[in-house]
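As promised in the previous annual report, we have extended the structural survey to additional targets. Below is the entry for 2'-5' RNA ligase family protein.
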Amino acid sequence: MDSMPERMTDHWWWLPGMRPGRRMLLWHLLPHGQEEVLDLVRRYQDRLAGVDGLDLVPAEWLHMTTQIVGFEDEIPSGRVEALVAGAGRRLAALAPIEVEVGRLWVHSEGVALGIRPERGLDPVRRAMRQAAAETVGVHSLDGDPGWTPHVSVAYSNADGPAAPIVKALDRAPGSVPLRVGAAHLVAQVRDGHLYRWEPLAEVALG
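The corresponding structure token record, generated without further manual editing, is:
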């Protein structure tokens, strides 16, 4: 378990430019169909089910955000097509990657599962950033090239002590394999205390 925060804060604040119903384009890595990963998340969520102040992420919306592209209404469709093509060329040069997911990370806005090796998916992230830079530009919300790949298990919806979460996870499950064979471009909105999206493109590695 990584170092723990003393207090939790509300995750559900609005990033600059975000508003209800406004769609944002992102690249996600999705664990769909990988039952070991889904079972691991369920086991963590079972431990957290009685803890106040958390929104557990439904299985169908589990994801690993890899690249923020930008707001859909600011990007011409032709550039989105060029982005997908550019990402496709770069990811085709990478073999599918297997990492372990399960490194527990409790941060001030939620509970997540990181990966080992920590930099194991950097080639995927790098390919996406290069494709974005050449087609739509790297969006200001995407931050710097530093990236902490993780699957969020729960988001904090209140300010309060972290101790109940830490206690609930004192005997956390182990890690399981995660195979990354594709990246998904999605148009995502925030719907209350939930991120949901429409899939736009799937690009395979290899």
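The mean pLDDT is 94. The two ends are 33 Å apart (CA to CA). These points will be discussed at the next consortium meeting with the crystallography subgroup.
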